[in-house]
Amino acid sequence: MPYQDLVFVPEVGFMPARALGTSDNTIVLRGDMIFTGAVVPDRDGIRVIFTVNGIAADVPVPAENACPLPIKATARVTDDRGREVPSRARWITGPMLRNAGPGEATLQWTLVLEAPEPEARELALSFDGPAGDWNVRLPLDVIVASGTPARTFESLDTREGITLAARALAKTPDRTVVELEAYLDPPSNETGPARRYVTGLGPCMHSGRLCGDQIVLRHDLGGRELEKGRPCPEPTGGKQREAVGFAAVPEGARSGTVEIEAMWVQEGHVEKITLPIPAEADITAAGCEAHAVVTRQPGLYTNGSVKVEIFPKDNGAQRRLVFLQGVDVAGGSRLGMQVSHCVGKSPEVSVPDPTGRTPEVTLTGPVVEIRGPWKVQIPLGEG
User: Fold this and answer.
1) Which neighbouring-strand residues pair with 124?
2) Strand locations in 100-206, DSSP E?
3) What is the dihedral of CA 326, 327, 333, 337, to 10 degrees?
4) Are 203 and 369 in contact (CB under 8 A)?
5) CA–CA separation, 299 vs 295, rounded Å?
6) With 143 labelled, which of 39, 74, 262, 342 sits at a CA distance of 20 to 30 A?
7) Which residues are paired to 43 by β-bridges?
């Protein structure tokens, strides 16, 4: 990997101290269309982020759906020596088309790529799709990140098919920041709806943990610190990564241990459970038994919603079902779906009911809590 030295940037996370990117946006005009693009360094490489405005096209989505429409198109990036810059895994990639008014659309696209070779001074972006065929050159500069110098290392703990990894450490006068990753080990071989993945570090969805579920740092002077402030998430393909902050450890501490008590795993959207509305029923999903409660919730200016609550049969089990992420009602969509998570309770999922009289609900996507604990060693001393 071309970049080794890292710094911690508040509100961002760990970044390369020096990396290739564009200093300014590249803008290209073609008729009524405007291309705007940039190369932005990230933790593991670069992101080529670009839009094309003024495309003469209608976006075939309902007027009330403000989400951009995924489309099929291809893109390729090479450097000034003709070497292709390969893509890398991330949660969501691909071109999107957004409605920009009657008969007009905007193309939005982010390419998540490996880092270019250090001697590269320009990237050539070529892509097709509803904006036509484009070839754009993006000049590169060295981008210097301003932050706290970080120490890189690797500490792993694998249990219950999940690995917790610590990879970087930064110390400021008021806090200690550790970069943590969690992922299935071995990784899921499934694709599409059947794919399994870790939803977050600890019992959470992506980032942010409730009181009582925080990540803990213990050091060799006998102290115990709970995580402090908001973590900086950096989702990668099949993994969850966060820069997690703690209070500053005392001088003299040489080593520490980061501990996570439990993890949540999304078990895929293959199993389907259909229940009437309302209902109270015992269910089994991903091999875990639970009691499901389905109720109608009144709406103020709508026909209301359907709420699904899950109560595990055995809260002390090594694996327990905490909620089902996919909740579908006939004739409805997940647009407007809400997931609420409060201290001491499993998450509650609500989806809009288009008629207020939908007879049944279909549940998919079980999320299972797996107990650890996971512990990784952290070098806190100098050097």
Assistant:
1) 78, 137
2) 104-114, 122-127, 134-139, 141-144, 148-149, 151-159, 162-171, 175-184, 197-198
3) -90
4) yes
5) 13
6) 74
7) none
Question: What is the Cα–Cα distance from 334 to 363, expressed in whole angstroms?
Answer: 12
Q: Which residues contact 378 (CB under 8 A, 6 or more apart)?
A: 155, 166, 169, 178, 217, 255, 256, 257, 258
Question: Which ranges of the chain does DSSP label H, i.e. alpha helix?
Answer: none
Q: For the whole prediction, is pTM greater than 0.85? A: yes
Tell me what pLDDT residue 137 has: 98
Q: Which of 138, 124, 136, 148 is nearest to 23 (CA)?
A: 138
- The two tokens of residue 351 are 């989806």
State the Cα–Cα distance between residues 5 and 12, nearest whole angstrom. 16
Confidence tier at 256 by pLDDT (50, 70, 90): very high
State in Å, rounded, how far the first CA of the chain is from the last one.
22
Q: Which residues pair with 55 in a beta bridge?
A: 105
- pLDDT, one tens digit per residue, over 367-383 is 999 999 999 999 998 75
Instruction: Output the pLDDT for position 66.
Output: 58
Q: What is the C-alpha to C-alpha distance for residues 113 and 21, in angstroms, rounded to an integer?
A: 12
Q: Which two tokens stand for residue 333?
A: 């969509």
pLDDT at res. 212: 84
Lookup result for tokens 């088309």: 97
| Tokens describing residue 301 | 């200016």
Cα torsion at 368, 369, 375, 379 (round to 10°)? 80
CA 132, CA 33: separation in Å to the nearest integer? 10
d(CA 331, CA 355): 8
- The answer to whether residues 145 and 19 touch, using CB atoms and an 8 Å cutoff, is yes
In single-letter form, the type of residue at position 325 comes to: Q
